[in-house]
Amino acid sequence: MAGPTTDGRVLRGEETRRAVLHRAVGIASVEGLGALSIGRLATDLGLSKSGVFAGFGSKEELQLATVRAARRIFADAVVAPVADAPPGLPRVRALCEGWLAYSRARVFPGGCFFYEVTAEFDARPGAVRDALAGCAREWSDTVTAALADARAAGALRPDTDLGDLSFALIAVLETANSQAVLHDDATPYERAGRLLLRLLRAEATDPADPALAW
Amino acid sequence: MAGPTTDGRVLRGEETRRAVLHRAVGIASVEGLGALSIGRLATDLGLSKSGVFAGFGSKEELQLATVRAARRIFADAVVAPVADAPPGLPRVRALCEGWLAYSRARVFPGGCFFYEVTAEFDARPGAVRDALAGCAREWSDTVTAALADARAAGALRPDTDLGDLSFALIAVLETANSQAVLHDDATPYERAGRLLLRLLRAEATDPADPALAW
DNA sequence: GAGATATTAGCACGACCGTTCGTGCAGTTT
DNA sequence: AAACTGCACGAACGGTCGTGCTAATATCTC
Predict the structure, then answer these.
(1) Do the beta carbons of residue A128 and residue A64 sit within 8 Å?
(2) Which residues of chain A have a CB within 8 Å of the CB of B174?
(3) What does the pLDDT profile of chain A (214 residues) look like in tens digits?
(4) What's the Cα-to-Cα distance from A195 to each of A100, B142, B162, rounded to whole Å?
(5) pLDDT digits (tens, 9 = 90+) for B63-72
(6) Which residue is nearest to nucleotide C16 (CA to C1')?
(7) What is the Cα–Cα distance from A9 to A14, expressed in whole angstroms?
């Protein structure tokens, strides 16, 4: 009748996996993937240690699943909504503003999940670092592609270095997150808003472009 | 005869403390302060666990001492050398270039110690976070003071927002470190060099200032 | 020399870690 | 009803964690 996954058992399993991962991304965004412990997750969720373990098979697989779960949350919170914005500068702006809103709103309780966890694993070769590097590349490509649209539409100067510009935008975003969380202070977000605007205006063919009226 | 610390016993103690901390900053810059373990340090250095423990009294004190040790290394590597550079734009430039060189040279094996460890503790209230927030503030103030000199000397526009500009410079530096370490690739440093120059030129009264001939 | 003092070692503790195992139960299939 | 599948359980494994004790050892003071 229905699809091959009408099995109530696997549905139940997926449900607990979801619950575990939801908790896991929260913990990891505050304390890092290293602070994830199977026993702690089990206690927090009222499960047995072995039950949690069985759902992932190994600690590293749990960490990788946590990264994948965070990637989905990030994509839903930041990337997906900009589909509404028209390509070009408006979409670039929507991406940046969406990112700042994502950080401000503490979609992850410890601020940006990827800032926290990438710093933790960037110097530790392994599957986790590879997954995080992939996410970073993906996000960078998203921003660069939006900038490329804007340049192709004539909104940015033809000689604009898209890599440099997307690097600069991302630098401002991440640093705003970092400082805001560290000092528990929202002014970095205001600085970031101003600086994003300046960076784009400096490369815009028309600095008075309404898309840059922040 | 000599000062009150001619005592060979405390000298020996300080020596082991130094050795422990040297190892500790290396580990922490790669794996974080959470990965510091007294037993591991003892094994690595051929000491007894209790000997290492006695030298610090608690795990948190070890972490704090590690942060202080890293702060000194950073100050020696980045802040102290710029005393040679004349105040104003040349000193700003020396700070930024010194920072990039510090990251490139892997003064800490995992890249910038503070990037790694701040991300780890920024959302965890406590003495460690407070110490790191102090270091961040200190570095930010150093950059801002150098910019203030430059503005006072007329090299930067009088309406330059020093806070925004130092934020932007630091954002570029840290993101260069982060991406270079994560992707094991040096091109972020080149991007950073170009962007620092542009940021300063945009605020300079004389964009052709020889101090900005990178 | 004796005695005070500071650093280190040895050992044991309770707690938690990731992991493995055998078992029970709920749902599916025949 | 019987056979099979998949999830979760409790108990236990060897290890490592941070942290206390109690010696032993090196150095200084007298």
Answers:
(1) yes
(2) 171, 174-175, 178
(3) 444 557 878 888 899 999 999 999 999 999 999 999 999 999 999 999 999 999 999 999 999 999 999 999 999 999 999 999 999 999 999 999 999 999 999 999 999 999 999 999 999 999 999 999 999 999 999 999 999 999 999 999 999 999 999 999 999 999 999 999 999 999 999 999 999 999 999 999 998 989 888 7
(4) 12, 20, 12
(5) 999 999 999 9
(6) A39
(7) 9
Please tell me which residue lies nearest to nucleotide C5, judged from CA to C1'.
Answer: B9
Nucleotide nearest to A35 (CA to C1'): C17
> Is there a contact between B102 and A98 (Cβ–Cβ < 8 Å)?
no
Rounded distance between C-alpha atoms, residue B134 and residue B151, angstroms = 25
Could you tell me the CA-to-CA distances from A160 to A147, A166, A204, B100 in Å, in that order?
A: 9, 11, 9, 24
CB contact under 8 A, A122 and B188: no
Long-range interactions of B75-84: CB distance < 8 A, separation 24+: B77/B102, B77/B107, B78/B102, B79/B139, B79/B142, B82/B146
The CA–CA distances, whole Å, from B205 to B89, B150, B208, B209 equal 11, 10, 9, 8
* Residue B84 Cβ < 7 Å to strand C: no
Best of A178, A181, A203 to disrupt the B interface by mutation (most B CBs within 10 Å)?
A178
Terminal Cα-to-Cα distance of chain B (whole angstroms): 52
Token readout for A168 is 């600069």
The helix/strand/coil state of B142 is helix
Give the helix/strand (H/E) hosting B14.
helix B8-31
Please give residues of chain B from 141 to 160 whose alpha-adjacent beta carbon (CB) lies under 7 Å from any atom of strand C: none
The gap between A9 CA and D4 C1' (Å) is 14
- Dihedral of the alpha carbons of B35, A67, B168, B190, in degrees to the nearest 10: 90
Does B119 contact A120 at a Cβ distance shorter than 8 Å?
yes
Please give the protein residue whose CA is closest to the C1' of the nucleotide D26. B9
Q: What is the pTM of this model?
A: 0.95
Give the number of residues written for chain B: 214
Amino acid symbol at B145: A
| Residues A89/A199, Cβ–Cβ less than 8 Å | no
Contact residues for A149 (Cβ-Cβ < 8 A; gap 6+): A87, A88, A91
Footprint on protein of nucleic strand D, Cβ below 7 A? A 7, 9-10, 12-13, 15-17, 42, 46-52, 54-55; B 6-9, 12, 36-40, 49-50, 53-54, 58-60
